[in-house]
């Protein structure tokens, strides 16, 4: 019996590993993409890889499959079939591959006696945003950042970091250029 299909998302160009969590010893894992075998591990042998994943994937003993340098064409339905010495098991994944992350865009404006920084990026997934200030050790998990003008030094820089899946991009701005 097939369990529900897990929806997973990767980004063009990143290395993507299917989130396989199996807590028993497995034998002869076979990965299929849209019903075609792309990787298999027969007993006593090394894993065998087939197009389109030949030379850009690795199959681990726990059954997890990593695809290197993800491409748009890697999107599709994947199935892991394995044997636990009692019966066959199946794990289904629907892989969606999104465009690579853009560089975030930073805008700044004055709001009362505070500086308002805003970080934006056009992307089809939900991003995680963080700010890092050159004069502060911790980061701020937010798309906007308010900074009192009196805390803005001539060398203070702000960096916005966007993150999706295993990929990050960042942009920086010197805060002095935001002041009137």
CATH class of the largest domain: Mainly Beta
Instruction: Detail the poorly predicted runs.
Output: none
Radius of gyration, Cα only, in angstroms?
A: 23 Å
What does the main sheet amount to? 6 strands, mixed
Number of strands: 16
Q: How much β-strand is present in the residues?
A: over 45%
How many discrete domains? 2
Molecular shape:
elongated
Global structural class: mainly beta
Average pLDDT score: 91
Counted by DSSP, the helix tally is 0
Which CATH architecture of the largest domain? Answer: Sandwich
Element string (H = helix, E = strand)? EEEEEEEEEEEEEEEE
Q: What is the CATH homology-level superfamily of the largest domain?
A: Immunoglobulins
Q: According to CATH, what is the topology of the largest domain?
A: Immunoglobulin-like
Could you explain how this protein is built, in words?
The protein contains no helices and 16 strands. By secondary structure, the protein is an all-beta fold. It folds into two domains: 93 residues, Sandwich (Immunoglobulin-like); 74 residues, Immunoglobulins (Immunoglobulin-like, Sandwich), CATH 2.60.40.10. The strands form four sheets. The chain has a six-stranded mixed β-sheet, with no helix packed on it. It has a four-stranded antiparallel β-sheet with strand order 13-12-15-16, with no helix packed on it. Strand 3 and strand 4 form a beta hairpin. The chain starts with 5 loop residues before the first strand and ends in a 6-residue tail after the last strand.
């Amino acid at each position: 019996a097939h369990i529900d299909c897990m929806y997973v998302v990767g980004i063009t160009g990143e290395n993507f590993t299917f989130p396989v969590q199996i807590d028993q010893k497995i034998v002869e894992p076979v990965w299929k993409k849209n019903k075609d075998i792309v990787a298999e591990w027969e007993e006593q042998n090394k894993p065998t890889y087939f197009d389109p994943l030949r030379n850009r994937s690795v199959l681990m003993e726990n059954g997890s499959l990593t695809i290197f340098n993800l491409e748009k064409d890697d999107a599709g339905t994947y199935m892991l079939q394995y044997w636990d010495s009692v019966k066959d098991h199946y794990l289904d994944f629907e892989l969606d591959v999104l465009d690579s992350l853009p560089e975030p865009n930073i805008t700044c404006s004055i709001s009362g006696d505070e500086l308002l920084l805003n970080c934006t990026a056009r992307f089809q997934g939900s991003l995680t945003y963080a700010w890092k200030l050159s004069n502060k050790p911790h980061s701020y998990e937010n798309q906007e950042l308010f900074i009192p003008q009196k805390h803005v030094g001539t060398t203070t820089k702000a960096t916005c970091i966007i993150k999706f899946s295993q990929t990050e991009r960042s942009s920086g701005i010197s805060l002095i250029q935001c002041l009137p």
